[in-house]
Design brief:
Layout (H helix, E strand, L loop, with lengths): L24 E7 L18 H9 L1 E7 L4 H10 L22 H7 L3 E7 L17 E5 L20 E4 L2 E4 L4 H18 L4 E6 L12 H9 L4 H26 L6 E7 L21 H4 E7 L7 E8 L3 H9 L18 H4 L11 E4 L9 E5 L3 E6 L12 E5 L15 H18 L11 E2 L8 E4 L9 E6 L3 E9 L6 E8 L10 E7 L5 E9 L2 E11 L9 E8 L3
Parallel strand pairs: 1-7, 1-8, 2-10, 3-4, 3-7, 15-17
Antiparallel strand pairs: 2-9, 4-5, 5-6, 8-9, 11-12, 12-13, 13-14, 16-23, 17-22, 18-21, 18-23, 19-20, 19-22
Helix pairs in contact: 4-6, 5-6
Length: about 575
């Protein structure tokens, strides 16, 4: 089924007639794990990115723009305009709090159409999904990688990907990067026809691992050039992103939208693996420059003079920048909290930088103590507390200091020569840390609400499981009757599927539900019908057993949980 051709049947009405001082459209392109050196214009001679290179020549760009070391935390800061720990996203994969007001919500309230095409990674379930956070059109997938929707754990592919369109399963037609850009362009055309200004986020999963499925023609081109297998595969994925950037600009030109559309491009964090990175140290998950630095490209003909800007910006600056470009006032406060960035439009226009810039803060923990691996950046200095990603024990040589005016690549540690600067920046970090008012439970995955009118059925995937086992934390506001469909890798012999609902405190004892069902050889799913589930907070667990074997025969890949009736 060529599902992508059917994705755009949603009827949208034009805005009520009103006077508008501007009709700025915005397209934000966010690539996934694209390293600082994965651009031709930044010196990579083995990688071809002609359209991104042209964008840097036609538009304004910052050579130093800071994100966070991992996916979710960057996306939370970019879309909220607030440091990600304040939004609930303390580590990768946690959902953003529902009360946060996103850039999409702010623009939607001012009359913009809003669409997200690709990776969200800020919550898979209501009220944390993209469609709950201001995006009226959403084509994407749960979790951080495309495989979460495939029927088998071995089916990791970017071609014809399994996706969700406004919460409904569909199958994309073609390579994932093409699918997302094509969907965004089709939606943009519809918004133009409806005379609606638009805000589109296009966030392909490329060049994020796994690297199993890459465009064959591009891969062969890079292998023929003598690159090693891994680098060739990454380059093929980056080239596919670049091709679609070119397609986007061509179509905007054909639609007559070029001059009234601000197009922004950046990556969410550093790259993975060893390849050219323009001399930067570190990569994804590191607070060194190679983990948190990306070029920021901004194309807006007639509004932003072309050329490189030597100042720097950070993720929380994007919201006030876009709001100013659209002529939308940024409120001093909102239910989520005050914006923490400032508009970069003056800098992108080539105006002088302000004399004083606030300190920037970064950290890279997945759990535990926020202070183990962090960095503080000021105009002159960068302090790095580098214990390693998610370290449990500090290292004696963890504290590093770099003079960013003379050593922007962090090649020479001068902490021993400037103990006063180290102490000052550590105090700045400690004060910022205290302002977050964090608790241990803030690092934990919240339970998934089952049976709510907002989301029914609920899809639970392996990427949301506790400790990579077939267990999910769930909550039911009230008792009800449910059907539960489990999907798994087919057994080669007869077996049984076991489904349990247990208290987190009494797992293995006094289960509220303990059901099992025979599984025939070759079967890949079972359906439990008419289960009575009690209200409360539970652990839902599912496992497979071979006939005559009390041990587990493998994990359950997906669980669809649907409440019957109102």
């Amino acid at each position: 089924m060529r599902a992508v051709l059917l994705l755009f049947a949603l009827l949208l009405q034009p805005l009520p007639a009103q006077e508008r001082s501007a009709s700025t459209n915005v397209v934000l392109i966010l690539s996934d794990d694209q390293a600082y050196g994965d651009f031709g214009f930044l010196g990579n001679r083995s990688l071809s990115t002609p359209h991104l290179d042209a964008m840097s020549e036609r538009g304004a760009w910052l050579s130093t723009f800071y994100v966070t070391p991992v996916c979710s935390t960057t996306r939370a800061s970019l879309l909220s305009g607030r440091y990600h720990p304040r939004t609930g996203v303390l580590r990768n994969g946690l959902p953003m709090r529902a009360e946060e007001v996103t850039l999409a919500e702010r623009l939607a309230a001012a009359g913009w159409a809003t669409g997200l095409f690709g990776k969200w990674h800020l919550g898979d379930h209501a009220p944390h999904r993209a469609q709950d956070q201001g995006f009226e059109e959403v084509l994407g997938f749960p979790g951080g990688i495309l495989r979460s929707l495939e029927e088998l754990p071995t089916a990791v592919r970017y071609t014809d990907p399994a996706l969700l369109h406004n919460g409904k399963p569909v199958r994309g037609a073609g390579f994932e990067t093409d699918v997302f850009f094509d969907a965004a362009l089709a939606w943009i055309e519809r918004m133009q026809a409806a005379e609606r200004p638009f805000f589109a986020v296009v966030a392909p999963n490329a060049p994020h691992r796994p690297l199993d499925d890459v465009p064959a023609e591009l891969l062969e081109r890079y292998l023929a050039a003598g690159l090693d297998e891994e680098t060739a595969r990454v380059h093929a994925l980056v080239s596919k992103v670049d091709e679609n950037v070119g397609k986007l600009f061509r179509r905007l030109g054909e639609l007559g939208l070029t001059e009234e559309t601000l197009v922004v491009f950046l990556s969410d964090n550093g790259g993975v693996g060893s390849r050219f990175d323009a001399g930067l140290v570190g990569g994804k998950s590191s607070v060194r420059e190679g983990g948190i630095r990306t070029p920021l490209l901004a194309h807006w003909p007639g509004r932003l003079p072309a050329g490189r800007r030597d100042g720097y910006g950070v993720h929380v600056d994007l919201v006030p920048t876009v709001l100013e470009a659209c002529g939308v006032d940024a409120p001093a406060a909102s239910p989520g909290g005050a914006l923490e960035g400032h508009s970069l439009l003056p800098l992108l226009r080539g105006e002088p930088e302000p004399d004083l810039a606030p300190a920037l803060f970064f950290h890279a923990q997945t759990k535990g103590d926020l202070g183990l691996n962090y960095a503080v950046r000021t105009p002159d200095w960068k302090l790095v507390h580098d214990d390693g990603y998610d370290a449990s024990e500090p290292r004696e040589d963890a504290v590093l200091l770099f003079d960013m005016r003379s050593d922007p690549r962090e090649l020479e540690d001068v902490a021993g020569e400037h103990a006063d600067v180290v102490a000052l920046l550590e105090q700045e970090y400690a004060a910022w840390r205290r302002s977050l008012d964090l608790r241990a439970e803030d690092y934990e995955e919240p339970p998934v609400a089952l049976g709510t009118p907002r989301e029914n059925p609920v899809l639970l995937t392996q990427l949301q499981q506790h400790e990579d086992t077939s267990r999910w934390g769930v909550v039911l506001d009230r008792a009800g009757t449910y059907d539960v469909r489990l999907r798994f890798a087919p057994l080669d012999v007869e077996g049984r599927a076991v489904l349990r609902l247990e208290s987190d405190r009494e797992r293995g004892r006094n289960a509220a539900l303990n059901e099992s069902m025979a599984v025939s050889p070759g079967a890949g799913e079972v359906l439990f019908r008419g289960l009575e589930l009690a209200a409360g907070r539970w652990t839902l667990s599912a496992l497979l057993r071979r006939a005559g074997d009390r041990g587990s025969a493998g994990g359950v890949w997906q669980a669809w949980v649907e409440r019957r009736g109102p």
